[in-house]
Specification:
alpha+beta
Length: 148
């Protein structure tokens, strides 16, 4: 067999394709790489997207919106002082896009207008915070990306 420039190009192309396919195989079939959607109920949640927009508008129209503060105790969620804390209900959802097992879901149970998520529950990294709460039957939604 004679080795010329056409044979060299064909071998280089074949080597490149094998190289790329080995990465594709590794990512698809290796358990080390966890593939999941941001939400398992993506399409069901999409149907209620207008409700989320309305709740976010309700939260933005408040005189004082929620605040998220990082302290040595952990993550402090400060609710508006104008509201009676006994009437606030909802959940705080901290989502780690890197690994679903690190997501945190905390029900809102307030004694004062501050809720603390202890630092023992949190790992360093990025969280997408979603606070969905109701007060006197009116829904509110607060979203923020934080780095802890």
């Amino acid at each position: 067999m004679k080795f010329n420039w056409g044979t060299g190009i064909a071998l280089a192309l074949a080597a490149f394709i094998i190289f790329i396919l080995s990465f594709v195989y590794r990512v698809m079939f290796n358990d080390e790489y966890n593939h999941h959607l941001v939400s398992d109920e993506y399409y069901k949640e999409e149907l209620h997207y207008q409700e989320q927009i309305d709740k976010m508008n309700n939260a933005n129209n408040l005189e004082e919106n929620l605040k998220i503060l990082q302290t040595e105790k952990g993550l402090e969620v400060v609710f508006p002082k104008e509201f009676d804390t006994n009437k606030i209900q909802g959940t705080i959802y901290l989502q780690r896009l890197s690994k679903k097992e690190l997501d945190i879901n905390v029900p809102i149970e307030l004694m004062s207008n501050v809720l603390i998520i202890p630092k023992e529950k949190l790992l360093e990294g990025r969280y997408d915070v979603k606070i969905d709460w109701t007060y006197n039957g009116k829904g509110y939604l607060f979203k923020k990306k934080i780095r802890y």
